[in-house]
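ok so heres the complex, three chains, lmk if somethin looks off
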Amino acid sequence: MKAGIRQSAAWLHSWGGLVLGWLCFAIFLTGTLAYYRQEISLWMRPELAQTNLFDPTALDHIADDLARTAPDAQMWQFNLPDDRHRTIRVFYTDAEGTYHSSLRDPGTGQILYPRDTEGGDFFYRFHFELMFAPTPGRIVSGICAMFMLVAIISGIITHRRFFRDFFTFRPASNPQRSWLDGHNILGVVGLPFHILIIYSGLATLMFLYMPWGALVAYGGDRAPFFTEAYDGAPPNEPAGEQAEMVLLSDNLLRFQNSMADFTPGRLVINHPGDANATIQVFASETDGLSVRPGSILIDGVNGTELSRRFETSTVRESWNVIYGLHLGRFADPVFRFVLFVMGLGGTAMVGTGLILWSVKRQRNGAFGRGGRIVHVLNVATLAGLPLAVAVFFTANRLLPTDIAGRAGYEVTGFYLAVGAALAYAMFCPARRIWRDLFALIAGLFLMLPVFGGILGFQGGISDLSDADTVFLWMDISMLIAAGASGALAWRLHVKGNRASYR
Amino acid sequence: MMFLISFLWASAGMGTLCLAMDRHAKQAGYFPAKAGAGGMRLFGTMCLAGALYLTITDLGIGMGTALWGCQVSLAGWLIAIILPYRAKWVPGIVAGSAIVAMAGILIYIVAGWAPQIG
Amino acid sequence: MIDTKMTGFPDVIQAFAITSRVILAVFGGYAVAAMIAVLLSVALPMPRVDATLFGMLISFIVWAAVATAVFLVRRTAVAWLMTLLFVAVPGIAFYWLQAGGDI
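and the predicted structre for the whole thing:
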């Protein structure tokens, strides 16, 4: 029975991994990049680098502005700036319920107009929506995540020498052996991270994937479930009469004084300008693991505290912590880098698995029909996606800042790069492809820090005297990426352009 | 700072646990003594526990455990990538990490007491 | 391959057995997970919101376990029976509770 189970688990792990591996690789890669979502967004909008320091009175200016320009708004939300996001993000819903958003200077409250780009949010959204519309995309990524859980279980069952081979890596052995060693080490040594990330990823979208319990327990109406799950205050009705609101800056300072352990993260103002207006000051998610650390509810007209909540039930706290573990918003720069490296490890785990498929299907350096399909898709994903990232960044730097729809063009560049890699893999002999593509990736990542200098932008390695840390680290990271890609391309070149994966 | 010291402890721990295994001890160039393996495993586990203690005192239970898990994985990957190329370095790395980590803790303790002395 | 009893059979039946296992793992596993999530939301002795959240959190582990088990059992028929059982038992428990039974 034991041999049968191992065999079945191996079959499940490898065939399931093949069918869904390319999507899983994309999910892992974009998720890893999304750890630096704010930094990438800032790098892609260098105009925002010189914003002022945060002044709470800016909130009052924004409130005046919104009262003038959007008097019928039902809700305002101000996301306060922090170390990673340097502007005030303002959202409001108008009378029809449509969302509007703007970026505001943290010192003056004036609207900022950076270049039109999706920035790091592109990777963040691609991570759970892939290239599809929101709901189908989330379902597809959910299926991938569910499969990854199954892959972990089946992988553990299949792996015979779990502890004996824990540190075993034999790069000098035959290709199948060394790629398998690499895949095993990346998977086994990183197992706590992988399990946690995949499970918590499913948990973040569990309202979509598993709504049945809520529907049954709440008799078909899930709205009260969401309010309770998010520990929200029951919504109050507008009084219909106008009233002047208290100053937001005063309430912010009061919040900071009354809860010394938490920094304020955002403010939500319900029914602004109405007699029943409320201001809810939320603690920042960066203080601890939980994504919902607590809030204070204040009467919007007279400023008295209505309620506060900083604790919740064990189940809700557990869910908030699981959610928070996935997002990683709690991480300081060092911890964030650690998470990034762990994410790269997971990406490489999926990648080595896919390469293993190609290696196994080679006969004398040539592929059969199925092996050819696997090879082409491997190239399009494992080389094509990093190329697409490089092209995405390059497009951001090369496109003029004021043309309409430039955000769409950057995204198109991303997909075109994947398509180009796919086409190149289909029509050119396998010998050259990996080397050529990684050389191209290296070239692009080498040029990007240089573009900044040519285009006159300060703040990166091209202008060390005025270097902004985010731009400096992005430049350094790109140089490292260029180095790694280039070294890989060089090694492939030196090995004589053989198609074999040694 | 605490991150660096706890990572050094994690590296020392993973390195020791690795060298406690016969095949890797041979890779690193010495013939393993059967009696030594148990002691090495104990020492390695204590190094890992020490790393966990440091991260928890620095970041709290939740974040501390999360960071520690990542550090252990990173240390494991580091050892695994060094072994096939420079296996002889591993005992040195283990010893060096443990020594630097202990020195780091001593400095931290002394620096913490300095205001009371001065 | 997985169905060791099927080794003598023509390829098309093997393919059918494997396909049915995939369908069973994906949809049957989902049915089991959903059933258990529903049962837990109404049966757990905690506030409604917490029971629902707990049911959701557990459901993914259940689904992964069932999906894996579907592929590990020797005979496809056993996999089908097992899954149907895992759906039926919580289902019966749920309906019994809804009809006013006590735990």
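quick notes: The mean pLDDT of chain A is 88. thats all i got rn
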